[in-house]
UniProtKB/TrEMBL annotation:
Signal peptide, first to last residue: 1-22
PANTHER family xrefs: ENTEROCHELIN ESTERASE-RELATED (PTHR48098), IRON(III) ENTEROBACTIN ESTERASE (PTHR48098:SF3)
Matches recorded under SUPFAM superfamilies: alpha/beta-Hydrolases
Keyword Signal belongs to the record: yes
Full protein name: Esterase
InterPro entries, per database record: AB_hydrolase_fold, Esterase-like, Mycobacterial_A85_antigen
Organism: Brumicola pallidula DSM 14239 = ACAM 615
Keyword Iron: no
Length: 517
């Protein structure tokens, strides 16, 4: 079947091995660098080749942090096309890099180097199933000596397998015809499931459900982490715990995180969730087939998605508990006003726009620096294919170009904003959507919106939420009863997970009682 372009974000999967022998030779003498790639066995002819330099041997370099702080590992990348058996590909300055543009700029140090060859065209991660990677080689750089480095692409990540289940912990991989048709390849929706204490007591009893959405690109496997948390288990299996099923949605999509909604670039994830996944889960896990017994919650990306699902499918859910949501008003897309600003990287005062700050306000990195990193991760040297946070937003909210690729909201190098693309983003501006549809949407949201935000959100997301609250407070027909909780001096998702989850689930239980009386 037709293969599609791969996207790249770095996450960990189980490892396996195969004999896909390819050699990568790096020769550097001062400012000279050469990379030779040779394959002695057949591997996919197209992909993106990465070289990662780490100063530490504690973890394999291929598990790149993708976090553009001052100590980020040097990363270099190159698209490969036409890979053939026993054919050598030589490169000199073909690799682009971050934070160093050229390998010759890497500081003198002891480095641990590893290569990854990403050939999975339907998974957004570098370390996705069946991708190839090399051994780790130690390299001493002193800036003067000749260097000859050989890395063998002799290992392969294992194919996907579902995690081990337990009595009250389940995992599912559900085929999606809608997504398969869109991508012209076999596609699946994955979930983790935690069952309540009384689940097996009465075979005919049906349970309400809460859909948990994680942060950006969070996987369904996080259900296992929560299930094995001692504090959670003590609450979940106590007599006071709400008897609900918890469903953990999967954030993986070919262009990053699907955000669980329909989009031109990712495909019909929203429709697939509602008409394929929901009926399957309702039947298999004895869920109440009624919107009054369904809830959403999550933080960060999950905060945005939980709110968006409640807004886009107001009668299918009975409440959203949204924490530290991504930008709900694109007048503050972090600090960028996509409608009025001309440049995403530089503000009207001529300064670089920050992307991430400490809670005391100290800037840690800028939007431009983050995009520079994603340009290296992304196929075609563009953040549009990075599978990272900005690339993921770009894919979800933006239109598709005639050639089938995602449009870009701004130039990957200059940051100049494309106003036509920005206009197309309006469909996903939750403040605009809520405001424009309030006459019909408002009555369906009564008692359903519960929003939490720290006023020192590390990604400046509090600004957009302020505008969203101001808009709701102005509505008259009907008046909004949305509950906003603001925490002073608190950052992004800065709360204790289990106590907050316990409080949220108990409020959902109270909501069910009110809805059925």
């Amino acid at each position: 079947m037709k293969k599609l372009p791969s996207m790249c974000v770095i996450l960990l999967l189980a490892l396996g091995f195969s004999n896909a022998n390819a050699n990568i030779n790096i020769n550097a003498n001062g400012q000279n660098t050469k990379v030779d790639v040779t394959s002695t066995q057949s591997i996919p002819s197209e992909g993106r080749l990465y070289l990662v330099f780490s100063p530490s041997a504690e973890e394999e370099p291929r598990f790149y942090s993708a976090w553009p702080t001052s100590n980020v590992e040097p990363l270099f990348a190159k698209d490969i096309s036409g890979f053939k058996v026993n054919e050598t590909h030589s490169f000199t300055h073909d690799f682009i890099g971050f934070p160093y543009k050229k390998m010759a700029q890497i500081p003198s140090n002891k480095w641990y180097v590893q290569a990854i060859y990403d050939t999975d065209f339907l998974d957004s991660r570098i370390n996705s199933p069946l991708n190839f990677y090399s051994n780790v080689v130690e390299l001493d750089l002193d800036g003067n000596s000749d260097i000859a480095l050989t890395l063998n692409l002799e290992k392969q990540i294992a194919k996907e397998s579902l995690p081990k289940e337990a009595q009250f912990l389940k995992f599912d991989k559900v085929p999606s015809q809608l997504l398969s048709d869109f991508w012209q390849n076999e596609m699946f929706l994955r979930v983790g499931v935690i069952l309540p204490k009384t689940y097996y007591d009465n075979p005919s009893h049906k349970f309400p459900v809460v859909f948990d959405i994680g942060g950006y690109h969070a996987r369904y496997t996080r259900a296992k982490n929560l299930y094995e948390n001692d504090a959670f288990k003590a609450f979940w299996f106590s007599d006071d715990a709400p008897q609900m099923v918890m469903i953990f949605l999967d954030g993986e999509a070919p262009l990053g995180d699907s955000y669980q909604i329909d989009s031109q670039n990712n495909g019909p994830y929203g429709e697939a969730n509602m008409v394929e996944l929901l009926p399957y889960l309702t039947a298999k896990y004895k869920l109440v087939d009624d919107g009054n017994s369904r809830f959403t919650t999550g933080c960060s990306t999950g905060g945005w998605v939980s709110l968006a699902l409640q807004l886009f499918y107001p009668e299918q859910f009975n409440g959203a508990w949204s924490f530290s949501a991504d930008g709900v008003d694109f007048k503050y897309f972090q600090l960028v006003d996509i409608y009025s600003d001309n440049n995403a990287f530089i503000n009207e005062h001529g300064n670089e726009r920050p992307s991430y700050r400490a809670k005391d306000g100290e800037i840690i990195f800028s939007i431009q620096r983050e995009i520079m990193m994603e340009n290296v991760i992304g196929r075609e040297d563009s953040f549009a294919f990075s599978g990272g946070q900005w690339g993921g937003w770009n894919a979800v909210f933006g239109p598709k170009k005639q050639n089938g690729q995602p449009s870009v909201i701004w130039d990957p190098v200059t940051g100049e904003i494309d106003k036509e693309v920005a206009k197309a983003w309006e469909d996903y501006d939750l403040r605009l959507y809520t405001q424009n549809n309030w006459a019909t949407l408002g009555p369906k949201l009564a008692g359903k919106l519960h929003i939490w935000m720290g006023d020192m959100d590390n990604f400046y997301l509090n600004n957009a939420m302020n505008l969203y609250q101001n808009m709701l407070e102005k509505q008259e027909e009907p008046k909004s009863d949305a509950v906003f909780t603001w925490e002073r001096g608190i950052g992004h998702c800065d709360y204790k997970k289990v106590p907050m989850l316990k409080k949220t689930l108990l409020q959902m239980q109270q909501r069910i009682s009110k809805s059925t009386n």
